[in-house]
From TrEMBL:
GO terms for biological process: response to cold; response to heat; response to salt stress; response to water deprivation. The lineage of its organism: Eukaryota, Viridiplantae, Streptophyta, Embryophyta, Tracheophyta. PROSITE patterns: ANNEXIN_1, ANNEXIN_2. This is Annexin. A pair of annexin repeats may form one binding site for calcium and phospholipid. One of its GO terms (molecular function) is calcium ion binding. Gene3D superfamilies: Annexin. Belongs to the annexin family. Keywords: Annexin, Calcium, Calcium/phospholipid-binding, Metal-binding, Repeat. It holds the Pfam family Annexin. GO terms for cellular component: cytoplasm; plasma membrane. It comes from Cajanus cajan.
Amino acid sequence: MSTLIVPPVPPSPRDDAIQLHTAFKGFGCDTSAVINILAHRDATQRAYIQHEYRTMYAGDLLKRLASELTGKLETAVLLWIHDPATRDAIILKQTLTAAKNIEAATEVICSRSSSQLQYLRQIYHSKFGNFLEHDIERNTSGDHKKILLAYVATPRHEGPEVNREMAEMDAKVLYKAGEKKLGTDEKTFVQIFSERSAAHLAAVDYYYDSMYGHSLKKAIKKETSGLFAFALLTIVQCAVNPARYFAKVLRKSMKGLGTDDTKLIRVIVTRAELDLLYIKAEYLKKYKKTLNDAVHSETSGNYRAFLLSLLGPNQ
């Protein structure tokens, strides 16, 4: 569930555009006003605000925000303002070609559903003029490239139905392709992980554990490595419990010396309208601290205020 808090009777997009324009006028930007508006509007409302702003002021709201905001707040707001598919396309373009953060690109691809990826591919092509598969092809290699290309292109069932016999068979096939033999049959892992539904893979994980005494996750860590292992682990963990997976990613972004703000922003912004409420519950359960408190202690100023607005009440 979403953590986004939208006013029961939101102002019209025209009123929001006027308020934003007022916040930009004069010396310095009224950042609090910008946060109070944008952090409490859903994707459709944000799109209407951009349209109204363009109509009324003959300007691009994104460009204006980029000129008025700075640092991490600017990064977060400019990512947030887009609809989910466009946002994912922008993240993938940046992480595959510009920033070369291939782990982040892998996380985004391997945590999205088949239908999300099909739509994302269309947006990617219309926005950047080239195919997502081409950028994956050019910037990745080996088995990691194979799993990403297969995962992006293969349609998968998205319902909760599971054929238990087939799931049990897949668990046996994966065991034979990995732990049972010398070396690993990566092709089998790519095929099963790219073709099966999330519900099916969760069942495979269950049968694997009950037959061989440990999770599929443990087997992947033992039998594969690097970005290929990271892709498989992301797929299986998001199949079993996506909220727990993202709680761990958030914890990792704030653990130790310094904060990985890119990761922190990416997860909060991309999950706020989806399942951030569940992620918060998993975070509290696993780390005995609310996600709001963790973010509060790792951030400051308007950047902190924006992220906490997206996170909703501290619970």
